[in-house]
Design brief:
Helix content: 55-70%
Oligomer: single chain
Number of helices: 30
Radius of gyration: 29 Å
Strand content: under 5%
Distance between the termini: 22 Å
Largest sheet: 5 strands, mixed
Structural class: mainly alpha
Number of strands: 5
């Protein structure tokens, strides 16, 4: 039933998305007609005349909500956001006029033909003009303006690397126009041009960026559908939990005798199952720790980068940090995603090789894919639904346009994410921009049976031929592709900032350059399968050498980033080599760590990775992965002033982002994921008894344990299919 409701929501989303016929912009989320409807030139002149000729407290509210001269200009900050909430809170009736605030952001070039002078008409108008004179006359000397061009060039490079704005090349530097990004608070009935013309009484050059009004987010079909679906889930949860609590705690009856359909949405049962961990001698215990550390590394990287995509107060300090050796733990963070590709391929073989025959895989290949799609669907669909509706309403801020852009992307391209093709189709307007990983993982999962077929045959020679041959083919194809495309070798290559989009679209989210770790995982999975139940005795010297190789290889994969991101780096040959071997080397190092921990050569590393706390994060990892990124954007979009970059502040924000993401993931898991997993289990298992035995938390996409569930259900489905 829940599946049907989600499909209904997505249908509404499709109808809503079909209205976006052109390129997606953040304007699509705001009520543009509202901005036009409130404009009244006659009323505007009347209100401005009152404000300028009457020294009242009301005028100071508008003035106090507007921008000052940006602080830390020499650190590269050319932005002042005024006071967003103070402006929108202005709502007063004076002399039969209703004064309401409108918050606008404008670009003000420093090189003005006419600088505003204090006209001396009256004290009030003098204050307005004085403020603009202070801002636009900050750097009148030509020498200073020349120096500012260099600062602006550096700032734009940083902003471009963070995906905020375009960058101009050195050849275009001479014509670079320096401008301040300033907020002004004006009466709602006025336009920015009319207001500034009336205040300054002379020509003043600026460019409108956007204006905001209270209640300027219109309700759409997706919003009503989201409220409906989540309300239904809430009602089902209350009813199911009430039944479960009455049956188990009040009447003290055996939980096994409760109606299984009635407790599917029970918070009590789902929480109890979530925190119940069953021992399995064949389980690879260290995976939860590896997955948790990799996930937190992803969140740290996203926290550092994305808080600065909004309003960095010192982008030049950020540039200096990015070039330093001590930033490696951030600039090299993208490589951690390859850990998940490795684990994905490893578990695919390890959990399948001993339980599914070659012919069973062929005959029931559709179930192989169906189970995967169904198990990934609930959390992904709910995250899409949250992004296109709920997250747009929970708060606001002067830079909410960044969130609005993602909302508009999901309203148009939600279906691309559910089909796992968002890394190839309309990549500029991706719904859940971090979901490219799911697309690549699913695409690799789709082609995996071509290798898995030979692994399941029982013939070691054919298995090794398929595994090694496919890995060599992928490595060769990737090397040829990288050679032809001539990519930079890092997402933060400061020497080639204009190639960021090219690198991201053609390399970073492309399946071929990212496939090698997955195929290394297939090899590792087969090795672990062959060693299943056996005691592996490695000479101490061999173990030490392999650990040294893993440490050196993984360290080199990280340290090379320091050199290739430098502004003076120019070596395409090395870039191509790095792009071809860096990620496989990292995956091979993690593969040895997994093997060593599984067979008793992990030492203290294995003890840390198998701590019980990581089992919880392991079960939440899929939901955390999907939810943390949009929540980071929500956190940052509420910023009301430029953020001063520092590692201390960034780490503080990381702990906040990780905590919020974990809480949100737990709620989605208990309220959505566990019930849907139980329903899917009933559908695949074919009986309520079977459904009662299914662990709803096996729906962890990053664990890839769903293939095991599929294999266990093959024989049971034979009689029905």
């Amino acid at each position: 039933m829940l599946y049907c409701f989600i499909c209904l929501v997505l249908l509404v989303g499709y109808i809503e998305g079909s209205t976006y016929s052109g390129p997606v912009t953040y304007h699509d989320v705001f009520d543009s007609q509202l901005y036009e409807d409130v404009i009244d030139p006659e009323e505007c002149n009347k209100q401005l005349s009152y404000l300028l000729n009457n020294n009242t407290q009301l005028m100071f509210k508008f003035l106090d909500s507007s921008a000052r001269t940006p602080r830390r200009i020499l650190k590269g900050n050319f932005v002042d956001l005024g006071s967003y909430w103070e402006c929108l809170d202005i709502n007063e009736v004076v002399s039969d006029m209703t004064f309401e605030g409108k918050y606008c952001l404008i670009d003000v070039p420093l090189q003005q033909e006419n600088r505003p002078n204090i006209p001396g008409i009256n004290p009030t108008q003098s204050l307005w003009s004085s403020r603009l004179q202070e801002i636009t006359s900050t750097l009148p000397d030509k020498t200073w303006l020349g120096d500012m061009k260099e600062l602006e060039m550096k700032r734009k490079i940083v902003m471009h690397k963070l995906g905020i704005e375009t960058v101009q090349t050195r050849e275009e530097e001479a014509s670079l126009e320096i401008s301040f990004e300033l907020a002004i608070c004006i009466p709602k009935v006025c336009r920015t041009n009319d207001t500034l013309s009336e205040v300054l009484r002379q020509n003043f050059t600026f460019t409108d960026k956007f204006c905001r009004l209270p209640n300027d987010k219109p309700w759409v079909g997706g919003d009503y559908a989201a409220i409906s679906i989540f309300s239904i889930v809430l009602v089902l949860t209350i009813l199911s939990t009430s039944y479960d609590v009455r049956h188990t705690l009040i009447l003290k009856r055996d939980p096994q005798k409760a109606n299984r359909s009635f407790v599917i949405f029970s918070v009590y049962t789902n929480c109890r199952r979530f925190f119940t961990f069953k021992s399995n001698p064949e389980a690879i215990e260290c995976l939860d720790g590896i997955r948790s550390f990799a996930m937190f590394w992803v969140i740290i990287g996203h926290t550092f980068v994305n808080q600065l995509q909004f309003i960095p107060a010192n982008p030049l300090d950020l540039l200096e940090f990015m070039q330093s050796f001590w930033s490696l733990w951030i600039t090299s963070a993208p490589i951690t995603v390859d850990t998940f590709f490795l684990i994905s391929g490893m578990l695919l073989v390890y959990t399948t090789a001993a339980k599914v025959s070659r012919m069973s895989l062929i005959k029931r290949l559709h179930l192989f894919y169906l189970n995967r799609l169904l198990r990934m669907f609930p959390v992904l669909a709910v995250t899409v639904l949250l992004q296109l509706s709920i997250l747009n309403w929970i708060t606001d801020g002067p830079y909410w346009s960044t969130v609005a852009f993602d909302v508009a992307g999901c309203r148009k391209n939600w279906w691309l994410s559910l089909l796992y093709v968002q890394n190839y189709v309309d990549t500029n307007h991706m719904c859940l921009r971090h979901s490219w990983y799911l697309a690549i993982d699913m695409q690799l999962y789709i082609i995996a049976p071509m290798v898995l077929f030979w692994v399941l045959g029982g013939n070691k020679r054919s298995a090794w031929t398929a595994l090694v041959g496919s890995f060599i083919a992928v490595m060769a194809g990737s090397a040829i592709y990288n050679t032809l495309k001539k990519f930079p070798s890092a997402a933060f290559a400061l020497s080639r900032p204009d190639e960021l989009v090219y690198y991201s679209r053609e390399y970073y989210i492309h399946v071929l350059p990212r496939a090698a770790p997955f195929f290394i995982g297939l090899v590792l999975g087969y090795v672990l399968h062959l060693c299943r139940g056996r005691t592996i005795n490695l000479p101490r010297g061999v173990s030490i050498i392999l650990w040294l190789m893993a440490i050196i290889g993984s360290s080199a994969s990280i340290i090379i980033t320091y050199f290739v991101i430098q502004p003076d780096w120019e070596n395409q040959v090395i870039d191509t080599i790095v792009n071809s071997v860096q990620r496989p080397i990292w995956a091979a190092a993690i593969a040895w760590m997994i093997f060593a921990c599984k067979h008793g050569y992990g030492g203290p590393i294995n003890w840390i990775l198998t701590l019980h706390i990581f089992k919880i994060f392991g079960r939440l990892s899929y939901a955390i992965y999907l939810l943390h990124y949009p929540l980071i954007y929500i956190h940052n979009a509420t910023t009301v002033a430029p953020i001063y970059f520092s590692t201390e502040l960034s780490m503080h924000r990381f702990f906040v982002d990780a905590t919020i993401g974990t809480i949100a993931a737990f709620l989605v898991t208990i309220f959505i994921d566990s019930p849907c997993s139980a329903i899917i289990g009933m559908f695949l298992g074919g009986s309520k008894t079977k459904a009662a035995r299914i662990d709803p938390k096996k729906n962890d996409e990053l664990k890839n344990e769903d293939i095991q569930t599929t294999s266990e259900n093959f024989n049971e489905m034979k009689s029905k299919l």
